[in-house]
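Take our chain:
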Amino acid sequence: MRLLDRYLLRELLAPLGYCLGGFLIFWISFDLINDLNDFQREKLKAVEIACYYLARIPRMLEDVVLPASLLLALLYALTNHARHQELTAMRAAGLSLLRLCVPYFCAGFFFSVVLYLLNERWMPDSVDVAEQIRKRHVAAETGAADPKWHRDLTFHNDRDDRLWRILAYNAESGEMREAYVEWKPPGGSRRELFAERAIRTNGVWTFYTARVLIPPASPGGLALWQPTNELAIAEFSETCEQIRSEIKISQLNRSKAARRIQLSVAEILDYKRLHPDLRALDRALLDTQLHARLAAPWTCLVVVVVAIPFGAPSGRRNVFVGVASSILICFSYFVTQQIGMSMGTGGYVPPVLAAWLPNAVFGGGGFWLTLRVR
């Protein structure tokens, strides 16, 4: 990296750190003031409240904190360079504006990748973890069920034509209690299985204290229940991740899904593997969530492209006009994202268009304006 690139990047990262810290402090303080009475009623300790907000930080960063911080930091850095005629001197030395902005594009790309990995790979269940922290004392005092256990779970594996009914399922360990499975082996008759307990180990479901309904050997014969202490069935391909996605999507609120991203890419793909033939509205919801999850992190790169043409121009001008214009455009961008989510979830526009059109329009518009900067 050239000395100039390091200088531009250093001048960006310092205000970015201040903006990130300020936004997080403001966001957490505002939320804490609103929910303090609830925290007291739920008997959360100071350490638990801190853990709660720590678990929520990935979602806060993705929603608005990191893109807004990057926008304001970049506007500050660019206007500061322009005010001191540094950009004019750099361009007089033969460097184009696009070349000068390479460190900013790299920063936008880097933070986009970080946001994706943070919410998809590193902390995909951060919202669920935060809710578990809030409910831990309430559940213990009221005798409510452990949030890790889900009761009366029923789902059908449409791909393999297999029906599962589970009295209780532990989403953390993958343990089942009182599990009933109905399926049809390749080339065989339909079978049924009931087990007091089941768990998946080494990629195979093992059932304990089980009974299997054996079809009659000849027409008109009686089907028999065959008991067994332990039974491993390798053909049951349902994974714990697929069952968790089944639980989460079955409880998904459509109105909330229209407003924000609720699912990870892995959860959506796991669900679609079990249900290849979805209803049109269900497919629209899942595909919109999928493409929105892929498109949302690139907000960081889009705000960089939008900020450059408003912060980089030199000469006599009102700095606040450029800053206000870029903030207004980015606000319009976020509103367009929300409208696209709602339209895509409702099936009014294709999910790809709903999720990616705001990035394409505002990113392309920002790049076009950058090329016109003199």
The mean pLDDT is 84. Residues 3-133+292-371 form one domain. The two ends are 26 Å apart (CA to CA).
